[in-house]
Amino acid sequence: MRTQERFSRQLGILDPDKLKARVTVIGAGGIGSWTVAMLSRIGFEDITVYDDDIVSEVNLGYQFFRDKDIGKSKVEALKDFIYEFSKMNITAKNELYKGGDYKELMICAVDSMDTRVAIWDKVKMKPQIKCYVDARMGAEIMRIYTLCPTDIDNIAEYEKELYPSSEAEQGDCSFKSICYNTGTIASFIINNVKKHFIDGKSDKEIFFDLKTMAMVRR
C-alpha cells in the first residue's frame, strides 16, 4: 500500500498530491522502462504503457528488467516489477500505440524515427494532451523535446526535428546504449515534467552529451 510516508523526503521538492495528470508512455525499452519506474516512484498513479516487444537478454544491460523477465512481454514484465518496486499498478498494453488514448501527459520513448513521426501524426492537435515529451538517445547522447501539441509555435519548432529513419545517423550497434544514459535521460524527463506541471514552465529542448558533459537547454 502506498502511504504518505513513502514520499516524506521529497515533499519540499514535489508534493505527489499535485501529480493528478494521467500518463501514457509509448515504448517500454531503455527510455520507457526507466521513465515509468521513476514516474511511479515520485507519485504518479495513473500510468499506461504501450509496447508489443518481449524482453531479451540483450535488453538487461540497459533496460529496467530482470533475468527472470526474459521471454515475457515487456509491458507485463514492467507491470510486475513496478508493483514490486513501487507498490503501484500500471496499465500494460501489449500492443503498438494506435492513437485514441490521449492523456494529459504523453511520453514518446520509441527508438525509430519513422515510428516517432507516426505517433506525432496521431497526437498532434489533440486538446486532451497538455504536455507531450519526445525523448531520444544514442550511445551517450540524449535529446528531449517537451511541448504542447496544440500550440502552433511549439508545433512549428518541433516538426523541424522530425525526419524519416533513412536520414538518421547509423552506427555500430555496440555504441547504441548504456544504463547510465537511460537512467539519466529518464531523470531529465521527470524533472522537466515536474517543471511543466508544478512550476508552469519547462525546457522546450534539452541536449546532453554524457561523454563530454556538454549541455544545451532552451
Description:
By secondary structure, this protein is of the alpha/beta class. The protein has a single domain, classed as NAD(P)-binding Rossmann-like Domain (Rossmann fold), CATH 3.40.50. It is about 30% helix and about 20% strand. The protein is built from 5 helices and 8 strands; from the N terminus they run βαβαββαββααββ. Strands 3-2-1-4-5-6-7-8 form an 8-stranded mixed β-sheet, sandwiched between helices. Strand 4 (about 105-110), helix 3 and strand 5 (about 130-140) form a beta-alpha-beta unit. The radius of gyration is 17 Å and the shape is globular.
Keywords:
Rossmann fold; 218 residues; 30% helix; alpha/beta
What value does the average pLDDT take? 90
* Proportion of residues in β-strands: 15-25%
Strand order of the largest sheet: 3-2-1-4-5-6-7-8
Please compute the radius of gyration using only Cα atoms: 17 Å
Number of strands: 8
Structural class assignment: alpha/beta
The N- to C-terminal Cα distance equals: 39 Å
Name the shape in a single word.
globular
**How does the major sheet shape up?**
8 strands, mixed
> What count of structural domains?
1
Q: In the CATH hierarchy, what is the class?
A: Alpha Beta
